[in-house]
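User: I'll paste a sequence; please echo it back and then give the predicted structure.

Assistant: Echoing your sequence first, then the prediction.
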Amino acid sequence: MITCDGESAPGPATGRLLPQLSPVLITHGNQQRGITLITPRVTRFLTTLAAAGGLVLTASTSAHATAIGSTPVRTFEYSVGGVTMKVPTGCMFTHVIRGNGRKITYQNAGVDCAFVGALSSGFCNWRIDFSYADTNNRTYRTSRGRTHSECKIDPMRNNSPQTLPRYGKACAHLYVNGVRRVSQCHHVTK
C-alpha cells in the first residue's frame, strides 16, 4: 500500500511572454455563465488535481499501486546575484510514484503553478532530491538531483526504477538556492 503526506517550508521579476490562453465555456445547469480564458498551465494544474482526486476515490483490485500527492509551496523570498526573487502562492509540488510492494517502477516530482504563481520568475538554482527512509524514519538512501542554475517556473525530475531494501517511505524534496522549501512523501507499507 502506498499513502502520501507533505510539508511546506516557511518561507524584481524578469520580463517574460504570457502563455497562450484557451477559451472555456462556464455553464451552470442549462444556463451559460460566460466564457473565461485559462492558460494551458492552469489546465494542467486542474487536471492534476482531478486525477489525484480520482485516484483517491477509485479502489484498485490489482497488486500494483500508484500514489499522487501534492503539497502547496508556501510564499518565500530568496536572493540570486543580489536580486531578491519572490515565489508567490499558487504553486503545488507534486510527487508521483508507481510500483508493487518495495519495487518502484516510476517516480516523478515537479512543480505546477497557476494564477499569480504562474506569472512569477520561477525557481532559480533549484534541484529535486528523492530520499528513502525505513519504518523508524531513518533515511538510508538519497538520490540527489543536479542543481539547475536557470530559473524555471515548472521544475521537474524523474528518478530511476528501483527496489527498496525495506518498507518505510519515499520522499521528494524541492531545494531552491540550497534551502529545502517543500517535501512530499509516500508511505510504502505491506
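Residues 40-57 form the longest helix (18 residues). The longest strand covers residues 103-113.
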